[in-house]
Amino acid sequence: TFAKVLEKHGSGGDGCEICKPTVGSILASLNNEIILGGDRVQLQDTNDRALANMQRGGTYSVVPRVPGGELTPEQLIVLGEVAKKYNLYCKITGGQRVDLFGAAKHELPDIWEELGKAGFESGHAYGKALRTVKS
Fold it and tell me: CA nearest 65: which of 29, 21, 100, 24?
């Protein structure tokens, strides 16, 4: 657990904004568990917990993963339906993903539930990690 890691290797605090998400990711990987499950959710920063990017106005952008920029017609329709239902602005990113802007925080679980049913997962556009390799 993070508490055990902190007890053994910490410097007396409750962890920093660098070590908390890093350790949370390692713990999730070691046990093949969802990174936002259990006590690991509190180790993530705001964007990681929301699976979205907080924008300047307090709304969020949602970036589903689009492997190789390829979508099925059904997935494209779902993206449009979700964007229309939640009044989201859409943009194709340089990484061949679709970014949906303007979501309220309370809408995020419902948006991800609808996108998940269509086979989408997070594009991790908010993470502090390698996201897209362009050729």
Answer: 100
Count of beta carbons in the 10 Å neighbourhood of residue 96: 15
Alpha-carbon span 57 to 104, nearest angstrom: 10
User: Residue 92 to residues 37, 98, 101: CA-CA distances in angstroms?
Assistant: 30, 5, 11
Q: How far apart are CA 118 and CA 123, in angstroms?
A: 14
What is the C-alpha to C-alpha distance for residues 36 and 23, in angstroms, rounded to an integer? 12
* Confidence band, pLDDT 50/70/90 cuts, at residue 19: confident
pTM: 0.64
